[in-house]
Structure formats: structure tokens, C-alpha cells
Amino acid sequence: MTAAEPVWPHLPERAAGGPTPARSVPLDVLRMAGMAASTTTEWWRTAVIYQIYPRSFADASGDGIGDLAGVTARLDSLAALGVDAIWLSPFYRSPQKDAGYDVADFTDVDPLFGTLEDFDAMASKAHELGLRVIVDIVPNHTSDAHAWFQAARASAPGSVERARYIFRDGRGPNGEQPPNNWESVFGGSAWTRLTEPDGTPGQWYLHLFDSSQPDVDWTNEEVRAEFDRVLRFWLDRGVDGFRVDVAHGLAKHPDLPDFVIDELIDSMGAAQMGHPAWAQDGVHDIWRRWRAVVDDYDGDRILTAEAWVEPLSRMAAWVRPDEMHQAFNFPYLMTPWDGTAVKEVIDDSLEAFSSVGAPATWVLSNHDVVRHPSRLALTAPNPQGVGIGPDSPGLPRPEVARARGRAATLLMLGLPGSAYLFQGEELGLPEVLDIPADRRQDPTFHRTAGERYGRDGCRVPIPWEADAPACGFSPTGEAWLPQPSWWGEFARDRQEGDPGSSLEMYRAALAARREHGLAAAPLTWVSGTDDVLVARIGDVTVACNMSTEAAALPAGRVIVSSEALDGTLPPNATAWILDA
Ligand code: NOJ
After folding, report:
1. Interatomic CA distance for residues 234 and 557, integer angstroms
2. What pLDDT was estimated at residue 22?
3. Averaged in consecutive runs of 10 residues, what is the pLDDT profile of the chain (580 residues)?
């Protein structure tokens, strides 16, 4: 196997005992930071947004798959952590071929996760706690179980039903070859041939992901109008925004030309710049239309792009003032543990995003990548999507992974802008390697016959109580992906109140980030060479040692650190220091 403060307009004050509300940020400070905020109520410019992957967060029903009632029951712990918002990955009706990113009905909750009433209860509890609620929207494709695709299957070539998708005749004398050479992100061809209702081999349909995820045709006004309806459905239910799946994939070159890929697909389309399926200019009209829909609502609702676009200067087009509010900073996420590279990507990010008046965002982990403690300690290349398993080369040493994971987090949470956290990272969870082949569920694993491990290792249901069934994930002890025997060591209840724990480091950092207004403060480098990065951010000095030797600790009072300090900054460590 190869390696492969303000109290926001529609939110109440935080509950007593919860984290301190954000301070009001003076406008001149925002301007200095390159954040041309017209109002300090633009909460998203500085927010920390916590990703909930519902199937792996908390299971109230006991079937081994997390659900919305489980989320509601555990929201207090997120408010206590000190985040500003939650983003939920899809919980819509779906056959779950791609863990819910294959949506059969965009305006209903899958029974696996509960009901629309469960959603309302969850959102209302989140809002009571002062947490904004962002939901995922998946506009590039539907499930093949969606009523539209079912109708397309049953209809003739050239019909209005087929025109909602990208159907083409095949090449070759009998149309037996796919219309072009595009590859699915999950491996194999991006085309699947239909068997027509009369049993004969028929047209091909495009799927940039799994064959169960046919791409819709965004040149079709019916498609555009339907998604306006879907947006309004959730906005009317009170959501604070959308994380937009595959925001660089909706527009395809009209000729669907062949494209010769000269490198391994190393992410969700990012390596394929120039590819006629990705980052085409046509997407921007769609985002302008969506922005108008979102702006129709009060309460500062947002759009966040999942756009694997490089370089950052190009990604900035997704967050121009009339398009989306934020885009995930994947170039930051993909940067290895190397001081020069990290400094460069921070500088590029601040410049690119501020050039269009958008906040920089920062992210280290999500449900598609190897959890960052493990990833940053790998000693062999591991492109996004390949994942790691027991046979992967360059596997991380646990102590290096732990230290780098903590240090990287503390650096990220000090940076100006908005940050995204992925459930379980506050516990310091590493990637799980030892998932048996017959329990793996990521289509990447199956479409590559196990050549790529895929993404299951970051999706294992998270541990809440060390000694409870399924570590508190599920009352019955069931878990859709097996939890390793050592999972309980990382459980939340083991970490609560332990100042050396990952959980307490995250809490301390989030509280200090608020208290010192770091997210809206200007960044100035004190030094950024030799793998020791030292920056002034507001009144705090953030120092991160990525070298193999201890480094000088800047003078002052340490307010948060990723390691116990003895007068120096050890390798793989970050500290926040306040002037004495
Ligand atoms: C990106 C999502 O994050 C990923 O999990 C999903 O597989 C693809 N888009 C396809 O929807």
C-alpha cells in the first residue's frame, strides 16, 4: 500500500459563567489591521468558528452515529471553550455515500440526525449561549438519490430533467468512452455511464467526486433559482451563514476539454489550476447572486468559501466585497512545519485578504485532512486526501506530534483575523491510523482500492468521558468508526481543570485572544528567520520556535504557552508574552 462585546443584534448576552464577550474593537485599530470594517458588529472578522462534524460529535439516539440532539446536549461545553460560532457539516437527507456531502434533499434533516424540530432546538440553544450557527451547503452536486437525478435517469437525452446535470454522449464509435479525461477527486474517472430505462448503455454524467454525487449544471437558471430557495429556507430558520462546499467547482469550461494532469491530485482541486473544471471565472456571478440573497437578511449573515485555490492572491477574488465574506485559508493549512514557509504564508495571507477588505482566516484541521498534530510531524510527503494508516511512510512520533500540534495552534490563535477549529482538536486528538479496511467508509479508500487511506482517520467519534461507553460519544457504546483503545486518554473529562492539558490551553488562548483583542490587532514581525518566528500582535508578543534548539524567550510576562517554560522557549513550542 502506498502512502497513499458587543452583544450582536439578534443574540442575547452570553450565559452567566460563559466566556467573556468580545471587546468592542476601535475602528482605527481595524483599519490599521487592514480590516476595512464599516461597523464593529461584523462579528465574523474576528470570530473563532468551531466545526461540528455531526456524525462524530455526540450521539443521543445510541445508534453509533452522532445527531442533532447530541449536539444540543453538548453545546454548553463549546460555549465554555470560548468559541463564537459553530459550523455544522451536512445533516440533510442523504444516502451517506460521502458522509452527507451527497445530499438528496437540501431542506430536510436526515432521520439519522433527527428532525427539523431538532435542528430548531439546537439552533435556539446555540443562540441562547451566544453561539452563531453556520450550516454547510453543497451546491456543486446532489446525491444520485435526489429527486432531480432520479427524474434525469428516467428521462430522455436532451430533456429538461437531464439539463439540470452535466450529461454528455460518450466518445468512441458506440459512445463507450467517457466524454473527456477528467478524474474524480476521489480517484478514477469523473464520468459514469448510465444505463437507460430500456436497458441500453446510455449517456455519461459528470461527477467531480463520487459517482453517487452528480454535478449540477450551474448555467441552468432552474438550478440557480432552486439554490436561492434553499438559502432562504435556512436563513428564514435563523442560520447565521453558510459554509459553501466546493466553491471553486461550480462553473465548468463550456467545452469540457481534456486536461492533462501532470502531477498527483494533492487536494480538492487545488493542484489543478488551469483545469477546466476548477476555479473558472463563472463562479463569481453565482457568489454575487448569493451575496445579494444573504444581504437581504439582517443580523450579519455570512458566506464562507471552501475554495482550494492557489495562490492566495487568486483566492482573494472569492472574498471581494460583493462576493463571500471569508474563504478557508488552505495554503496556511498545507504549509509544513518550517519557519520561513510559515512566515511567508502569514504575510501572503494578510496581504491577499486585506487587499479586498476581507479578514484573513486561519485553519489547521478539518474533516478532510490529517489532524494537524499528526500532519505537522510527518516526515514524508502526504498529499491531501491520501491520509495515513499503519503502513504509511514517515509516520509521526507521538511526542513531536503533540508538541507541534500545540505550538501550531497557539501561533494560529494569536494571528489577526478569524480562525476555524475542528471538533476534537481542542483535545489534542491525533489522526487514528489503525482503522480496519472493512470499517473504513471514505469513498477515497474504496475508489482507490485502498491505495489511499482517505479521511476516516480524522473523523473518529470524539471522546467526552474516559470511562463511559464509547468514551461518552454514545450511550450504547456504538461508534460508526471504531475508537482506538487509547482514546479515553484524550477524553474531555480527563483534561478539565488540568493546566497542562490541551483543552485548558485552548481555553486559555481563546480567553486571552479576546481579552487582548488579538484578532483585530496589527501584526509586526520582530524576527522571522531561522525557524524562530516572533511577532508583535497588539500588546502581545507571540513567539514560536520551529527549530531544533531552545530559543531566547522574549522579555515580559508569559500569558499562555504550549509547553512548561524554564526561561527559554524549547523547540516545537509557542508562547504569548505581555510586556512586563
Ligand atoms: C468538500 C467536503 O469538505 C468533502 O468532505 C466532500 O467530500 C467534498 N467537498 C464533496 O462534497
Report:
1. 46
2. 31
3. 28 31 32 37 95 98 98 98 98 98 98 98 98 98 98 96 98 97 92 93 97 98 98 98 97 93 59 81 97 97 95 96 98 96 97 98 98 98 93 97 98 98 98 98 94 97 98 98 98 98 98 98 87 96 97 97 97 95
Alpha helices in 372-491 (DSSP H): 372-375, 398-414, 443-447
Q: How far is the CA of 359 from the centre of ligand 1 (A)?
A: 24
Tell me the chain's radius of gyration from C-alpha atoms. 23
**Pocket flag, ligand 1, residue 67 (CB < 6 Å):** no
pLDDT at 273: 67
Residue 19 and residue 6: Cα distance in Å, rounded?
Answer: 13
Asked if omega into 475 is within 30° of 0 (cis), the reply is no
Q: What is the pLDDT of residues 521-558, one digit of tens each?
A: 999 999 867 799 999 999 999 999 999 999 999 999 99
Residue-level pLDDT at 29: 34
CA of 99 to the centre of ligand 1 (A): 9
Distances from the Cα of 509 to the Cα of 237, 244, 558, angstroms: 33, 28, 12
Of 342, 340, 417, nearest to 372 (Cα)? 342
- Helix 116-128 / helix 68-81 crossing angle, nearest 10 deg: 10
What topology does CATH give the domain 27-139+221-502? TIM Barrel (3.20.20)
Rounded CA gap, 273 and 252, in Å?
Answer: 13
Contact call for residues 333 and 18 (beta carbons, < 8 A)? no
Please determine whether the domains at 27-139+221-502 and 147-206 fall in the same fold group of CATH.
Answer: no
Q: Kindly report the protein residue whose alpha carbon is nearest to atom 8 of ligand 1.
A: 101
DSSP state of 310: S
d(CA 4, CA 384): 10
Indicate if ligand 1 lies below 6 Å from the C-beta of 35. Answer: no
Instruction: Exactly one of 240, 245, 368, 426 is catalytic; name it.
Output: 245
Architecture of domain 523-578: Sandwich (2.60)
Q: Do residues 215 and 185 lie in contact, with contact meaning Cβ atoms separated by under 8 Å?
A: no
Predicted model pTM? 0.93
Q: In whole angstroms, give the CA distance from residue 415 to residue 360.
A: 9
Cβ of 101 below 6 Å from ligand 1: yes
Q: Residue ranges of the domains in the chain? A: 27-139+221-502, 147-206, 523-578
**From the CB of 98, is ligand 1 less than 6 Å away?**
yes
Tell me which CATH homologous superfamily contains domain 147-206.
Oligo-1,6-glucosidase; Domain 2 (3.90.400.10)
The Cα 366–Cα 95 span in angstroms is: 22
Q: Tell which atom from ligand 1 comes closest to the C-alpha of 138.
A: 11
Contacts of 336 (CB under 8 A, 6+ apart): 376
Cell of 236: 428564514
